[in-house]
TrEMBL record:
Protein name in the entry: YetF C-terminal domain-containing protein
Lineage: Bacteria, Bacillati, Bacillota, Bacilli, Bacillales
Membrane disposition: Multi-pass membrane protein
Keyword Cell cycle among UniProt keywords: no
Residue ranges of every copy of the YetF C-terminal domain listed in the record: 27-110
Keyword Transmembrane helix recorded: yes
GO cellular component: plasma membrane
Family in the record: Belongs to the UPF0702 family.
Compartment(s) where it occurs, according to its Swiss-Prot or TrEMBL record: Cell membrane
InterPro entries xrefs: DUF421, UPF0702_alpha/beta_dom_sf
One Pfam family in the UniProt entry: DUF421
Keywords assigned: Cell membrane, Membrane, Transmembrane, Transmembrane helix
Length: 120
């Protein structure tokens, strides 16, 4: 379970993490997918401390993840890089009872893990 509190910019004043591109704080710690995170904490100085899941604690040759949807907007170039179609993605969203792409806050694809989706 990921223990990161994610919110919109209006929540910033309450000390929550602002996400306009959710991967940037993790990439600084050699984490390229939210799925690698076991626990994350917003520190009092504004930095983020992250504990990786055990299976990701060592560097591997796994494929990089493709960010497909952010804040309800589809990245068609990344979808194509992942070798996926928009029709396939919409079908996967329907399977998860998500009627429209605009209802997805964050979606990424990993060849080994599949889709990771966070609803709005």
């Amino acid at each position: 379970m990921v223990h990161v509190e994610v919110s919109k910019e209006k929540e910033f004043s309450r000390g929550k993490v602002v996400v306009s591109y959710p991967k940037w704080p993790y990439r600084q710690k050699n984490i390229f997918s939210i799925q690698e995170v076991a626990y994350a904490m917003l520190e009092t100085d504004g930095s983020i401390s992250v504990l990786k899941k055990y299976r990701y604690s060592k560097l591997t040759n796994r494929d990089f993840n493709q960010l497909i949807i952010i804040d309800g907007t589809l990245d068609k170039a990344n979808l194509k890089r992942a070798g996926l179609s928009e029709e396939w993605l919409r079908c996967e969203l329907r399977k998860r009872h998500i009627p429209k792409i605009k209802n997805v806050f964050f979606c990424e694809w990993n060849k080994n893990e599949g889709l990771f989706i966070e609803k709005m």
